[in-house]
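*Target chain*
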Amino acid sequence: MTDLFVRRWMTDQQRAGYSLCLILDPEHENDICQSLLNASPIEQYLSVYEGTAITDLANAGPFIFTLDQPGDRRIDGLLEHPQRNWGWLASLPKGDLPNLAKHWRERLLIGPRAHQALYRFHDNRVLARALEQLPADALPAYLGPVISVCCWDGAGWKITDNPAPGTYPVPNEPLWLRTSTCAWQAMQIRLINAHRYLLAEHVKAYADLAGQHDPDAWIRDRLTQADAWGWHAPEQVEFLLVQSLQAPAYTLEAYWQARADETPARHFERVYSLQGFGKRQTSL
């Protein structure tokens, strides 16, 4: 059983004197997350989004729990089903839980201030891709106080040791933001970020949509349409999502379709203007 591999790693880390911690995405593991929250002393867990610019998403965002024992039965369901992509495991120096939360809080938001996105460090697929591609000398700034990571990469459990655990500033050009991502993984990240944006900024309209459509399928269709039109900039995708959400019967008017002689930029400017927002400043 693959979970025996993880239990052995957990035992080795505890015997070395380190704390064990679980980085958990509660989005699809809410029951397990609530069980851990109810059974854990307050000093043994943290919400990573708490106290940040996205603190309103604190309950939906990742939690970090410290685990007392390698044989903790509360996480059996997670270890037996790693394909649910619930997060990952790490070892830390004793008492370093607050430092780990601070480390990832400093790396949460990426991109220009006006168009920031969330870096999904808690997604084991994102972490595994970065760990696979980063050179060894970039690992300390990426993993911070983490001593060792045990992570499901889609095919099996992988262990990565941090060569120099500690406290590091965020590099000006983080290498982990340059790692390549498969198309499916990239779409999953975009879906989750779009979902959280609509939940935070347009919750009533989004709830109304969910009463008539599968939100994941609806967002996927919008993102696919944005790709087909060549609308890749964050403001273009945001515009398409919000206007589609507000359109009668969630159906855009015919003038939204691209013309044969239009570049993606001119197409966007035309639709933006026809939607009543006026002419945007453009270098075209």
DSSP finds eleven helices and eight strands in the chain. Residues 184-277 form one domain.
